[in-house]
Amino acid sequence: MTRRPAIALGVLALTGIAGGAACALGALTLNLIAAEGECEVFWRNGDVQFKTSTPGTSRNSFTVKATSGSVEISGDPAALATDPVALAKAITYRGAGTGGFELSTADGRTVAVSEPDGTLPTGGVSFVVKSPENPAGTRIPVFSYPAPATLQPELHLLPVVSVQVHVITPVDFTPEFAAVLNDAFGPVAKGGDKFAFCTGDFNA
């Protein structure tokens, strides 16, 4: 099944190129076409400063974009197209891409976070994290969702099956990322701390 190119811009998620759709028993997998998201950071610590090379609409936000990914729809697309509640529960997003941020202190100690890779509506987001203790960087879970992300989808059956989804979710520190921050800066975070509020759009 050939996919038609399209572009969707918005605010967490990520940019890919349509390649096709694969069908399995009870599931349809669509290649990600485009996705982009923005996270507004509300976590604060007086000694730790936030900055990003991919800024959003405010000085305290950062953006992410996809370079690859897929959207899986579990169930009958014809039935789900008229039931947005069931459709939202049937969607699983997987994407990897670009974007991130840095947290640093006045003495130059920095934790840098890049190359997001995550799933929606559950799971979370991992990043490559570099720190003074690990300057080469390691991919670890960075964000978790306190509850399943809110998905607001629209499914189209013609001329080919396609889906557009708006996403809303807060994100929390994982224990793994909090441990990195504490190693770098002292006791500044713990797993479950609220970090940011994210919104985004993706289509496939």
From TrEMBL:
Domain of life: Bacteria
Lineage, top ranks: Bacteria, Bacillati, Actinomycetota, Actinomycetes, Kitasatosporales
Protein name: Lipoprotein
